Structures are given as structure tokens and as C-alpha cells.
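Q: What would this chain look like folded?
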Amino acid sequence: MKIFLKLIFFASTVILPAQITPRISTYLGDQQRNYYGNYAPTALRVKWKTYLGSGKTNLGQMGFKTWKGAGWTGQPLVIDENGETFLIQGTLSHHLKKIRARDGKVIWSTSVGDVIKGTPTFTDVGGSDPAKRYVLITGSRMGLYTDFFKGKAYSLHGISYLTGQILWRHNSQRTASNSRDVDASAIILSKGKACVPLENGKFTIFSPDPRKAKVIDGIPAPKIYKQYRLYKDADRRLYGRELCTESSPTWYRGKAWVAAGPGRVYSCGVGTFGRTGWSLDVGGDLNGSMPLTNDGHMLLAIEKQFMTGQGGVMKFKPGGRVVWYSPVPNRRWYDWEGGLVGSVAVNHRYRSQVSRDLACFVGVDGHLTLINHKKLQPGVTVLGPRQKKRYPTPLVLDRVKLPNGSISTPLFLGDQIVVAYDNGLDLYRVTDAQKLLRMARLPGVMFDATPVVWNGRIYAASKNGYLYCLGN
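A: My prediction, written as C-alpha cells:
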């Protein structure tokens, strides 16, 4: 009788699918890149912290370096499973980890062979096998001991959400780009397809379904439908081999909109004959992902590199014109010269006592800026990124100096802002006077990664090696 009951239990756990609901399913919430969780706390007390480990990576001429914890962009996913909430965290220790949100317990930990800088994307591909139905599309660096010129760079992976098993791996081919990594988070398309820009410059449309994978050189590889370039041959005159795309695409009106590394925004077709269409050539280095605003525009973060002007934030209509530009003061910080590495945040998906037309951003200069993205400074224009054209500029409501610079992306939840920087994390409130009021500060912890908020808790991974749970 006991054996019979055990068989029934085993069959139920293997055959019956879990009740799984993704809450934060990709970088910056969903495919509009403008959702940051449900509600934030009002304090930053450490509820728990979990050590994520350390790992080596090959930085070329700089040799092998050891990194800890999680870095840019490094945002956790939030998944509800059978009444329990779990986090999916990529780490610099080479491992993707499934972590129980209430206490930080690691459920599984899977190595992909090199550091993971980006954020996975969760998808349900269907089928009767739960272990292969729920897939985490995960990018990484190219492989610790991979020969850049001749080796196989397995930097895109399909991993089972339930078991942590690697289901397939994609070899990012060598191109004119100086990278074969993958930092971007994928978009899930209809008919079981997905798309993601790789750092080799190839926009890739593929199937994340392991049932469609084909074994190549002894390794299951995803079915590829289409690949095309996100750079031009002429770009090499200015950018050299800095042709990689690190930002995550935004889905809007049936197309993926991508901020490509060589200073250009593309609309990317996702059909069998997909190709780049409309483009916006702004210059600079484009690392940030573009949130969709409540008036059908996008906000583009621009880092100052390869251009004469200042980095900053640009609002534009997809397929249309530039609305305004907000420059950020130049400041040399690490390898950056100014502008933004992280993304802009907007607040329209939340209730607000002040306005739902607000946006905020933090530059490498260490200033958090609050704007109304629908209002302009009357009669004021500024030079654009290349100093060839003048643009209107948005109404700046407030600007505060953080203790240090940042490449992290702030979270904007109604009237509250969570902002991480190089030696701490702050919690701000937007007052009725539309000013920034600091509510709490966690000092002394280095954050490159973007946090996430869920049920009054902030989950933030640090380069000191730990994932923090913060709250009241």
C-alpha cells in the first residue's frame, strides 16, 4: 500500500503541471520595459541576504578577473508557483539560480560556463512535460575558455524553470563585432517564437521550445528562423569593432524596437523575411532599454562615447520624429565619459497622487533627475548628442546628487523611486510639490544590477556577492 501511494505521488509531481504565474517575466517587467513590481516598502531594513558566489571571466588583454554577486543589468525575475514566490537571479558566478523569495533559500543553481550579466526571459512553450514547458531564455558571456576567433561561443541558453536543466544552447557566431556575449533579454512572439539581439550584432528570431531543438556538435541548439545585422559596414569607420548591442528590445505595434550599440535605433521585423526598417541615427553608445510611455513614445538613454556632444535622454515617436532631448553633464567615471548606461523609468502604470506623466533617470555623473516627459521648458532648446541640431528640452522637476555614480536603472512605482548606485541604494518619494524626498538609504553596498520590487520587498543583487531582500 505504501509503495502504491508513493507511485501515485511521484506520478502527480512529474505529470501534473505546476500552477505557475510569472509576475516579472523579463527585464524591466515585460515587453514594454516599464513595469517594476507591484508596491514598494517605506524602509530599507535587510530582511535576509543570500550569497550568490563568485566566478572568473576572461577580459581579453586585461586577463582573467574574478567577479562576485551580480552586475549590470542583473535584475531578478519574480514567479509565483503553487502559492509560493520565487526569484530567478543571474549571477557573475556563472550560475542561474532559483531562489525562494520569503527566505532566500536557493532551490537550484545551474552553471552556464561564464558570467551572466543580463536578465532572463520566462516563457511557457506548452507541451505535456512540465520540466520542458517552462523555459528561461538566458544570456551570458561567451564562455570562460572559449577562443574568440575559432571557438564555439555558447552564450544563449534555454534552461528549465522547474529543474534548472539546460535544454539547449546557441553558438553566437563570430562577426565584425568585438563581442560574442549576450546581455539582452528576449521578447516572446506569437506562434512559439522569440527574438533577441546578440552582441555579435545579429538580431535573432528563434524558437525557445526544446522540442524543436536540433543537435549540433553533440549539443541541442534552438531552431533559428532568421538572423540579420544591427550595424552597417560604414559604422566601422567610427566605432571600429564596438558594434555590439546590449540593450533589450521593446515590443510595440508588431515590431521589436532596438537601441543598437552603434548609435542607432531600429524597428526590427520579426517575420520569416524580417529585416530592419525605420531607424533613428543619434550617435553615442546605446546601452539602455527603452520604456514605452503612456503617449506611445519611447525614452532613449544615450551614453557619451563616439560623439562630440553630451549624453542624456531623448524622447521620440517610434517611426517618427524626436520630441525633446535632455542632456546630462559630462563626467568621467570608470570607463564612461557621461550620459546614461542604465535605462529611463516611467510611472504611468501605477496610481500617483502627483502625476502619471513622470519619468526619472540616473546618469554616470551620480544625479537622479525627475522630469515630466510631456511638458517642455518654454522657449528653451539644447544641442543634440552630435551638436548638429537643437531640440526642445523637458521640464525638470527636481535633481538630487547621489553619493556616487550609477549604471543601474531606477524603479518608479507611482510616487516612489528606488535607485541603486555604486555604494548604496536609496528610496525616494515624489512630494505634492513634485520634488524628491529621500525616505531611506542603505549605505556601503555596491549595486550595478537593477533591483525589482514585489509585495513590499526590494530584491537587489550586489557586486559584494549577495542578493539582498529589503523592506519595512
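The radius of gyration is 21 Å.
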